[in-house]
Amino acid sequence: MSFRPMFQQRAVAPLAASLLAGGVALYPRRTAFAEEPRDLKKPIYDDYEDEIPTTRNIPTPTTPAAVSSSIIPATPTSSSATSSPTPTDILTAQVRQARLFLYQNSLAVETCFNNFLSRALHIENAFTNTVASLAPSPESGERLLPGGVYVVVAAMAGSIVSRNRGLILRTASPLAFGTVAAWTLLPVTMRNVSDLVWEYEKKVPVVADSHLRFRAQAEHFYHTGVAHSAMGRAMMEEKIGEARKKLEEIVSKGH
């Protein structure tokens, strides 16, 4: 009796195994996909709820009258148009005019001062460059210090020579002595000075023409004087030669 349940369990186990195998064999096989949608049924009615506009989304139309009223500003009232300016407004306008007047005058004064400084600096630079251009070049070998001292001494000598003469001679003699000494001792510097004077004289045609005529006459007198001196020297040498010959003849006859 005790072994009957055991025999019944052993008889049921093969029967259950055969039923399970038959169920697996008869069950329809189907491949399962990981991303396959769960619900493959197509709905009968399409859902157009998102496309149907609601009363909340429909914009309210604007009438032309409303647009014109929003664009055109409100016209001032007759009371504001006829109101006179207040004392504060009048004072503000006067202060503004006074500030503009002061600003314009101060700007004009500043501009004039800047222009004056610019002209002064330009004149200073021009004077410095002019003085520097009068100096002789290092290649010429001319020195201003000893030559200038000699020119001053020559001018003082001319003043001493003509101290007992007339006013014109006392004025012209130092100038003549100094000019001759300057052209002799400082030829390069005097050439630069004469070129600078000529540049200023060309700005006045009358003075330039007078200078050219005076220079031509001076050169003519100089060349004439040189020629006459050469002729006088030749005549003197000739006379001296004749006198020497006569003296030799007299001496030879005396012996």
TrEMBL record:
Chain spans, region Disordered: 51-86
Principal location listed in the UniProt entry: mitochondrion
Biased composition (Low complexity): 54-86
Top-level division of the source organism's lineage: Eukaryota
Compartment list: Mitochondrion inner membrane
One CC-aspect GO term: MICOS complex
GO terms for biological process, alphabetical: cristae formation
Keywords from the named record: Membrane, Mitochondrion, Mitochondrion inner membrane
Alphabetical list of Pfam families matching this protein: ApoO
Subunit structure: Component of the mitochondrial contact site and cristae organizing system (MICOS) complex.
Function: Component of the MICOS complex, a large protein complex of the mitochondrial inner membrane that plays crucial roles in the maintenance of crista junctions, inner membrane architecture, and formation of contact sites to the outer membrane.
The protein's name: MICOS complex subunit
Classification lineage: Eukaryota, Fungi, Dikarya, Ascomycota, Pezizomycotina
